[in-house]
Every structure is written in structure tokens, then in C-alpha cells.
């Protein structure tokens, strides 16, 4: 017969009854939650120090500001489409019929203390959150920070951006003003263009024929509960993976794939992050206090028989609207049903572009066959094809953004609306190609410049005349640290199919996927995609005095 002895936590701990109250409270919490051990293992986590890494923090702080201001706004907003007669303090609207949603938004703007400021902070923070996400994802893309083991984190970031777009759309639709109502009507028409299921989705979303009497309440639930809840979970998961994988860093002396050079989370990084939060909050509050956004009192309540002039979505939805605006109005009839290709095709293209963004890390990993972990970032110039693809995508986005505001471009710059539409139609196909070619050439030029700097040193601007009359520019040699940074990148060899017959002359079958991978790999890393790095022999020959310097 055996017995098991249990040990009570803290049984042998020293007597802390005379310790300060704060320490005793900390001991009590640690004995039940293990906070001290958790903090000890994580609060000294090292984070590299580079300005571009703060882009993600701008997104996180903007999201927190959105949550805080959104909670305040929910106290006063009435998500109802019941019709009421306005008798508030805003004179021009006196006696007008409007929904309770519009009326309560007017009350927030003119009668609730600080309501208009909070409303504008909420809207501006949403715009800055999505702009920060856009730039942050571009930084991750151009530097290759999405590679193994961070593919899942890239998907989390992409979902945050995509859900942020739809959260913003449902949010600016809530006041039920003429501008947002026009956007909702536009969206409903796009949904109806989806074959077979479009009508059912529209009826489910709007509770019947548009505009119905329920869509504000439904959008409200989606806006404050469903989408933010998912986004909050994704953001927590994103941060956990950042901690788990450790942060990426730029190449430099002492930095390897197995270490991180930087500052500890506590106290250095936390102090900087706390100050940066208040800086972001202050900038957003200053913008909100200076620049009016979404002045619904100047637009009026939504009426299905009216369309507001110059109606534009927020910038992040301009890509989708631009595709639909410039698409020719094609329609076909099949078995008695009309298929509106002029709307449906842009929706498919929009989905394909977003889908390509989401799966790109897996595509590049397949093309390169690289299964290693990467914690050192690329300089964009050293991956010219990837950088060219990113710039091409941004170019396509910006061109379609012009299409999304083609009427304003026409009126403000006295241009033909048809000319702008044709510019966007042609530019959608030609612009990204030109952007890719130009970006790739710029990257190769920068690679050549780096090679020259490593071999010959930095141009000092000092001109010297030699005894025989020749004028030369004096070059200052780079430090060992600078030379290491400029030559630390890898140059990947393209994937080769190899011999298609063995030593016995038996022909090996090559799959189509293998052929495609070989062609894509040569496009990424073949001839004309990278400038050979300077070798040690070249450097020694030039620095020994035998080469021209």
C-alpha cells in the first residue's frame, strides 16, 4: 500500500505578512494564476528596432481606438428604420421625416457632449486602420516576411484587411443617410448579379425587397458583434504567432536566422509602444477635430428615389466600385434568365485578386521549393520579380480607384467621363505590366549600384587630379558592416527539371505541374532577374591595387 503526499503551494514560502500591500496582492495573484512565471518568460522577449515595424502597431492602436469610440457611440445610436419626424436642435432638418437611425446620428452629432468628435474619431480611425493594414501588408510582402513559418500569419493579416473592408462598409451604412444608402443600393445590385443564389442572398440580407425595414438593424449586429469579434480573435492570434515565431529582422552583422537583435519588451519596448499609442491617438483626434468627414446633415436622409451627386465609397472599397463602373454593360439571356456580366465579371475579378493575395506565400514557396524557415528579411531590390509583382498590384489598385471616382475626376479636372473610363479599362491591363517592367529594371539597377559600392567604395564627391593630368573621383571604402549588409542576401538558383531520360535511355514522364514550376522558377530567378554578387576574389583584386579604383 502506497500513499501520495501533496504539497500545498507556498507552504515553505517565507512569511510575507509584513510586506507592502501591493507585493502581497501580487503574491496572491501569482499563487493562483502563475502571472510571475508567465511574465518572466515573456516580458524579456526581444524585438528588433526599425521604423517599418511600427506600421503593424498603427493598425493595432487604430483598432483599439475604433473599439473604444464604438462602445461610446452604441450608447446613443438607435439601429431602427422606423420613420420619425425630426424635432432636434438642427434647424434645417426640422419637421423632416427620417429613420430613427438617421435621427439618432444627428442627435449624436449635435446634442451628445463630444458626440461629433467621437463619431469623427471613429470614422477616421477606421480609414487609418485600413490604410495601415494596406501599407503593413506591402512591407511584409516586399521584404518576404510572409515566408515559412509565417504563412498562417499572412492569412490572418489578409483576413483582418478583408474583414476590415466589410466592417467599414457596414459601419458607414448605419446612419441611413443618402450617401450611404446609395452605396447599399449599389451593393444590393451587385449581389443580385450573382447567378442562382444572388436573389436569395439579397432577400436574406435585407429581409425582403430593398430597402426593406431591417437592414440597418442587421448591419448593426454585423458591425458591432460578428465582424469585430472575428477580427479581435484574428488579431490576438496574429500577436500570439508573432511572439511564437519571434520577430523578423533586417540583415546585418550579428543577425542570423537563429537570433533576434533588439530591445527587450519590458521596459524599453513597452515604454516606446505606450508613447506611440498616445501619439497615434493624438494624431487621429487632431485630424477628426480639423477635418469633417461624412457630414450627414448636409446630405439628408436616404430616399430610394434620390441619388446623391458625387456619391463615392470610402477609399478601400473604391477598387471594387471602379471595376464595376468601367466594365461595359454586357448582358446575356440564358433559358429566360438575364445574366448581368457587366456586374458579375467585376465581382469575380475582385474575388480572384483578393484570393491571389491570400495564397501568394504558398505559390512562391511552391515555385522556389524552399522549405526552410526565414527570419532575415529581404531587401526589395534583391527580389526584383516579387517587388515588381507587388508594385504591379498597387498600380492596378490605384487605377481602378480612379475608376471608382470617375465622375469626380471628370468634374474637378474638366475631363471627359468616357475618356476616364477608357483610360481605366486600358490601364487595368497595361499599367501593371509597365509598372512590373520598370520596377524590375530599377531593382536590377540598384543591385548593380550595391555591387559597385562593395567593390569600389562610396563616391565621396572629391575630385583629384593625377600627375599625368587625369581627373578621378576619390572613393571611400565601405566598412565591414556595410559590406556585409549589402552582400548578406541569398541568390536562389532556379528549379530545373533535370534529365528526362535515365542512364538506360528510359524516358521519364514530366508532369505539367513540374513544367509550370520550372518556367515560373526561371521567371523568378533565371537570367536577367538578379545581378551576381561580388566575389571575394574580385574584392581582393580591386583593393590590392591591381584594379582601377
TrEMBL record:
<feature type="transmembrane region" description="Helical">
    <location>
        <begin position="383"/>
        <end position="402"/>
    </location>
</feature>
<feature type="transmembrane region" description="Helical">
    <location>
        <begin position="186"/>
        <end position="207"/>
    </location>
</feature>
<feature type="transmembrane region" description="Helical">
    <location>
        <begin position="53"/>
        <end position="77"/>
    </location>
</feature>
<feature type="region of interest" description="Disordered">
    <location>
        <begin position="524"/>
        <end position="549"/>
    </location>
</feature>
<feature type="transmembrane region" description="Helical">
    <location>
        <begin position="422"/>
        <end position="443"/>
    </location>
</feature>
<feature type="domain" description="Cytochrome b/b6 N-terminal region profile">
    <location>
        <begin position="25"/>
        <end position="251"/>
    </location>
</feature>
<feature type="transmembrane region" description="Helical">
    <location>
        <begin position="121"/>
        <end position="142"/>
    </location>
</feature>
<feature type="region of interest" description="Disordered">
    <location>
        <begin position="1"/>
        <end position="21"/>
    </location>
</feature>
<protein>
    <recommendedName>
        <fullName>Cytochrome bc1 complex cytochrome b subunit</fullName>
        <ecNumber>7.1.1.8</ecNumber>
    </recommendedName>
</protein>
<feature type="transmembrane region" description="Helical">
    <location>
        <begin position="339"/>
        <end position="363"/>
    </location>
</feature>
<feature type="transmembrane region" description="Helical">
    <location>
        <begin position="154"/>
        <end position="174"/>
    </location>
</feature>
<keyword id="KW-0472">Membrane</keyword>
<feature type="transmembrane region" description="Helical">
    <location>
        <begin position="219"/>
        <end position="244"/>
    </location>
</feature>
<feature type="transmembrane region" description="Helical">
    <location>
        <begin position="273"/>
        <end position="294"/>
    </location>
</feature>
<dbReference type="Pfam" id="PF13631">
    <property type="entry name" value="Cytochrom_B_N_2"/>
</dbReference>
<dbReference type="InterPro" id="IPR027387">
    <property type="entry name" value="Cytb/b6-like_sf"/>
</dbReference>
<keyword id="KW-1133">Transmembrane helix</keyword>
<feature type="compositionally biased region" description="Basic and acidic residues">
    <location>
        <begin position="534"/>
        <end position="543"/>
    </location>
</feature>
<dbReference type="InterPro" id="IPR005797">
    <property type="entry name" value="Cyt_b/b6_N"/>
</dbReference>
<dbReference type="InterPro" id="IPR016174">
    <property type="entry name" value="Di-haem_cyt_TM"/>
</dbReference>
<keyword id="KW-0812">Transmembrane</keyword>
Amino acid at each position: 500500500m502506497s500513499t501520495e503526499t501533496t504539497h500545498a503551494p507556498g507552504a515553505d514560502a517565507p512569511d510575507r505578512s509584513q510586506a507592502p500591500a501591493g507585493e502581497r496582492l501580487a503574491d496572491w495573484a501569482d499563487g493562483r494564476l502563475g502571472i510571475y512565471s508567465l511574465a518572466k518568460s515573456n516580458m524579456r522577449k526581444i524585438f528588433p528596432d526599425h521604423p517599418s515595424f511600427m506600421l503593424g502597431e498603427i493598425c493595432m492602436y487604430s483598432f483599439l481606438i475604433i473599439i473604444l469610440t464604438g462602445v461610446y457611440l452604441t450608447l446613443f445610436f438607435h439601429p431602427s428604420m422606423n420613420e420619425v419626424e425630426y424635432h432636434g436642435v438642427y434647424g434645417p432638418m426640422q419637421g423632416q421625416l427620417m429613420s430613427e437611425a438617421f435621427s439618432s446620428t444627428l442627435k449624436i452629432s449635435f446634442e451628445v457632449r463630444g458626440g461629433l468628435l467621437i463619431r469623427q474619431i471613429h470614422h477616421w480611425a477606421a480609414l487609418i486602420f485600413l490604410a495601415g493594414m494596406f501599407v503593413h501588408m506591402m512591407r511584409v510582402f516586399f521584404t518576404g516576411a510572409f515566408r515559412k513559418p509565417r504563412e498562417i500569419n499572412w492569412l490572418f493579416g489578409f483576413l483582418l484587411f478583408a474583414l476590415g473592408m466589410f466592417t467599414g462598409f457596414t459601419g458607414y451604412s448605419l446612419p441611413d443617410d443618402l450617401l450611404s444608402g446609395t452605396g447599399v443600393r449599389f451593393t444590393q445590385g451587385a449581389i443580385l448579379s450573382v447567378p442562382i443564389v444572388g436573389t436569395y442572398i439579397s432577400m436574406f440580407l435585407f429581409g425582403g425587397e430593398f430597402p426593406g425595414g431591417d437592414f440597418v438593424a442587421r448591419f448593426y449586429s454585423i458591425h458591432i458583434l460578428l465582424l469585430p469579434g472575428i477580427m479581435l480573435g484574428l488579431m490576438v492570434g496574429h500577436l500570439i504567432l508573432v511572439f511564437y515565431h519571434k520577430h523578423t529582422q533586417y540583415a546585418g552583422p550579428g543577425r542570423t536566422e537563429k537570433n533576434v537583435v533588439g530591445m527587450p519588451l519590458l521596459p524599453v519596448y513597452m515604454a516606446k509602444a505606450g508613447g506611440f499609442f498616445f501619439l497615434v491617438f493624438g494624431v487621429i483626434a487632431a485630424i477628426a477635430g480639423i477635418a469633417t468627414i461624412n457630414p450627414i446633415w448636409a446630405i439628408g436622409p436616404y430616399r430610394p428615389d434620390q441619388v446623391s451627386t458625387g456619391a463615392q465609397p470610402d477609399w478601400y472599397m473604391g477598387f471594387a466600385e471602379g471595376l464595376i463602373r468601367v466594365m461595359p454593360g454586357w448582358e446575356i439571356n440564358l433559358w429566360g434568365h438575364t445574366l448581368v456580366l457587366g456586374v458579375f465579371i467585376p465581382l469575380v475579378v475582385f474575388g480572384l485578386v483578393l484570393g491571389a493575395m491570400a495564397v501568394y506565400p504558398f505559390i512562391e514557396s511552391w515555385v522556389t521549393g524552399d522549405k526552410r524557415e526565414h527570419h532575415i528579411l529581404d531587401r526589395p531590390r534583391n527580389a526584383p520579380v516579387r517587388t515588381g509583382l507587388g508594385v504591379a498590384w498597387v498600380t492596378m489598385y490605384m487605377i481602378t480607384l480612379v475608376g471608382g471616382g470617375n465622375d469626380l475626376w471628370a468634374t474637378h479636372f474638366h475631363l471627359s467621363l468616357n475618356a476616364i473610363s477608357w483610360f481605366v479599362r486600358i490601364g487595368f491591363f497595361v499599367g501593371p505590366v509597365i509598372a512590373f517592367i520598370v520596377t524590375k529594371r530599377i531593382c536590377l539597377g540598384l543591385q548593380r549600384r550595391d555591387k559597385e559600392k562593395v567593390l569600389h567604395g562610396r563616391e565621396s564627391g572629391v575630385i583629384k587630379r593625377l600627375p599625368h593630368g587625369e581627373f578621378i573621383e576619390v572613393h571611400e571604402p565601405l566598412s565591414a558592416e556595410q559590406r556585409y549588409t549589402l552582400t548578406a542576401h541569398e541568390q536562389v538558383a532556379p528549379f530545373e527539371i533535370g534529365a528526362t531520360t535515365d542512364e538506360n535511355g528510359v524516358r521519364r514522364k514530366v508532369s505539367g505541374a513540374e513544367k509550370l514550376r520550372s518556367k515560373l522558377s526561371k521567371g523568378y530567378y533565371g537570367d536577367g532577374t538578379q545581378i551576381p554578387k561580388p566575389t571575394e576574389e574580385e574584392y581582393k583584386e580591386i583593393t590590392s591595387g591591381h584594379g582601377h579604383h
